[in-house]
Amino acid sequence: MKKKKKIGLGCTAALVGILTLSGCTASFCSAKDKANILYAFDYGVTEYMTMEEAEADGSVNTSKLVQLTSIEGYDYTFADDVYYYADISNSECVYNIVYNAVEEGMREPSLIYFETLDQVVLAHALETALNETDEELLAKTNLPEDNVFTVENIRDVLDTYGYIKFYDSSAERSLDAELWANWYIYNEEVRGMIAVDEYPDVDFIDYYVSTQESNISSYRSCLSVSGGEYGYYGYGSNKGPVSIEAKTYRYSWNIGFFTGLLVYPIGWCMDKMVEGFVGLGLNIENGVPQILALIFMTLVVRIVMSLITFRSTLANQKMNALQPEMAKIQQKYPNSNTSQRERQLLAAEQQKLYKKYHINPMGSMLIMIVQFPVFLCVWGALQGSAYLSTGTFLGMMLSETISSILFNGANWSAPYGAVTALIIFILMAGAQVMQMLLPRLLQRNRMKKVSKTGKNPGQTQQQNRMRIFQWVMLAMIVIMGFFLVSAMCIYWFLGALIGCLTTWIMDIIGKRNIRKIRAKDAKVKTAKK
Fold it and tell me: What is the CA 389 to chain-centroid distance, rounded?
């Protein structure tokens, strides 16, 4: 086969592999999940309250309160003490979107537009609540028997059904639903209810949608087996958990092959471990069940992978243990990088050494081929776990990135989440450095008895290139760890520790195996004499 064709087939195979494995890290967030997250960002600019609550809250200007008696076009009855106060500053997200849009030269929508949109959303949320048949959701909304809605009813209904502002709940499955469908429909309703100059132009509509899409694009922690309230979503200081629907095994196959084969089962195990620790009385809010489950999951995956790749890993460690002998062979052919004959003789002696100790030099490739998709699937499952985006650990939000925690000045005071994040980041970076340096330290110890004269220039260049590559990869890992959510940074720390332990144990096994082969070879030679 021609070289160009080989390269072409290799690139094609690599591309297919990448596309196939891309599902491992795909988002588990359904359209309904995304709608809930969007609503956490933009819950509207209207606050509903009673006059008594407004008077008790010194920050509210009671002269700007409006009594909610009806919603135009809808037949709902509200209690006499239901008032609302609309202001763009009530929503940090909307305020910043409007501010940035105006800075870019767009026309600012009026407060009437946002106020009317909030009332249309409320009307549809009430309609959804009145048509609800799920007993658990009905208990959440606690609808009045006389159909006269109080402030408490309005808040409960919006908390439960506010997501329909962005989500078409009429779809049979959330997988079929279209995000933003209702938002565009409700905007058309608002267009017919207010003056033309009060309504936003097309540029603002597009800007709002693109900004919100950007706000939620990084969120993918929606892998939950049971469903419930998870995460820490929202804008600025207004953040909190949102409702994430349960994901089924069938749903995972719709995302991708490896997602159904490995990612969902791993995520399922993670969920059950957390729930098991919660069942023992541990509080999920302090992050202990999540961290314990993360430790156990990392151990289980590493042990299983070690068993699967044991023979290949052992062969790799035996190759490392034979480095002193390999170095002596390389010293015999110092010009192997330029001389074809010496290169052939070097390869022949190396092959003879591999055969003697039953080593397959391609074993390390097998390890990578097996481990890469599995570790990628583990990463996807843990990154997608809804539980790992919930709660705090020693004051550190598990859903926040290390960088955002460290750069937020408030985190440096009690409960000192930034201190925890800094310690974990340092431990993670240190463990990654140790995992990279340990094989080299072990090899250096083995090479002490080998003469340092007569080095092979070709091998020295290759080793230098490998070291540069390793340091570049390490730098990338540490930099990526700085921008990882804290839960995944803990996972990298645990993985590196277990990796160091595995390397050390396999090195001992490999050296023992070689000693046995040498002892057996010595007996055979003695018997022949």
Answer: 9
Q: Is residue 241 within 8 Å of 256, Cβ to Cβ? A: no
Q: If DSSP states are collapsed to H, E and C, what string results for 248-285?
A: CHHHHHHHCHHHHHHHHHHHHHHHHHHHHHHHCCCCHH
Q: Which uninterrupted H or E stretch holds 515?
A: helix 486-528
Q: What angle is formed at CA 55 by the lines to CA 54 and CA 60, rounded to 5 degrees?
A: 50
What is the tens place of the pLDDT at every residue in 421-437?
999 999 999 998 898 88
Reading the block at residue 194, the tokens are 């207010």
Cα–Cα dist 183/62, whole Å: 31
Task: Give the Cα separation of 390 and 400 in Å (integer).
Answer: 10
Cα 401 to Cα 311, 396, 470, 497: the distances in Å are: 38, 10, 25, 21
3-state SS, residue 373: helix
User: Which parts of 205-356 are beta strand (E)?
Assistant: 228-235, 238-244
Q: Which residues pair with 223 in a beta bridge?
A: 385
Each residue's pLDDT tens digit, 54-112: 888 877 888 889 999 999 999 999 999 999 999 999 999 999 999 999 999 999 999 99
- Exposed / middle / buried, residue 223 (Cβ in 10 Å: 0-12, 13-18, 19+): buried
Q: How many degrees, rounded to 5, is the angle at CA 432 between CA 467 and CA 382?
A: 130
What single-letter DSSP state applies at residue 206? H
3-state SS of 164-205 is HHCECCCCCCCCCCCECHHHHHHHHHHHCCCCHHHCCCHHHH
Indicate the burial class of 359 (C-beta count within 10 angstroms; 0-12, 13-18, 19 or more): buried
**pTM of the shown model:** 0.81
CA gap 500, 507 in Å, rounded: 11
- Distance between CA 169 and CA 182 in Å, rounded? 9
Asked if pLDDT for residue 454 goes beyond 60, the answer is: no
Burial of 481-496, coded b for 16+ CB within 10 Å and e otherwise, reads bbebbbbbbbbbbbbb
Q: pLDDT for 503-516, tens place per residue? A: 888 778 777 777 77
Residue type, 164: I
Residue the block writes with tokens 């490995």: 262
Q: Which two tokens mark 27?
A: 């988002």
Task: With CA atoms as reference, report the closest residue to 68 among 161, 162, 150, 189.
Answer: 150
Rounded Cα gap, residues 78 and 82, in angstroms: 7
| Percent of the chain whose pLDDT exceeds 70 | 83
